[in-house]
Amino acid sequence: MNIWELIVALILGVVEGLTEFAPVSSTGHMIIVDDMLLQSKELLGSQDVANTFKVVIQLGSILAVVIVFWSRFMDLLGIKKQDQSGSSRLTLSTVLVGLLPAIVLGFAFEDFIDTYLFSVETVIVGLVAGAVLMIAADWKVKRDEKAGIGTKIDGLDAISYKNAFLIGLFQCIALWPGFSRSGSTISGGVLLGLPYRAAADFTFIMAVPIMAGASGLSVLKNLEYFTADMIPFFAVGFVSAFIFAFISIRFFLALISKIRLLPFAIYRIVLAFVILGVYLNMN
Predict the structure, then answer these.
(1) Are 191 and 134 in contact (CB under 8 A)?
(2) How many CA atoms lie within 13 A of 150 on its CB side?
(3) Most CB within 10 Å of its CB: which of 40, 96, 243, 257?
(4) pLDDT tens digits for 163-215?
């Protein structure tokens, strides 16, 4: 394992950490940074090893969410109850209801998605369509504010089973690569009447079990690639993804209520054109 290979692992970990939970599509960024520029598949000598690495760095990002929301997860698991002050709390069953649509559709269409939807063209479509959804969410909030209409759902702990299920349906849109899980679910939550911060919190909390489950299974299926030569590469990517995901999540949560979704939507559209330009130049 040479220095350049470790630098590639570091760069990809940083890209994963910064984009996995921001509503900008980590898939789109990986296409332009890895598939078009760094080409870890060629570096590692195998697409399977490259895919395993991407799963490993995704686990680093997931760990960052767990740390940021540690008290909330302990509360959900009944390990450490937060001060309820006589009010209702978000429950584990509510989170599971939100996960149900994506789990069912993900299993049902896994082969179709892997075969037909992972391409540069489909990611570009997802980036632009996801941006339109985010702009629509912002537009609705501005319209309601002008009409003197407040949020319909007070906050994270006021999410009902119905709300969770509907937000889960929005999460299903992210099965199309490029849409972004956080972009779809935050937009869905806002459209349903959640404050931006509560929609973001619920999005991140829902992401952990579904992503950890899928990534964990993938790691178990590919343990053969965790050789002594590859461990340093995986470790650098994992640690860098964790650190930059932690920074990205804290920064995003502090800003989302102020800047809302429009800046991210504009960024996604610009990114789509950049990917299209690079793709056309390469072909």
Answers:
(1) no
(2) 3
(3) 40
(4) 999 999 999 999 999 999 999 999 999 999 999 999 999 999 999 998 999 89
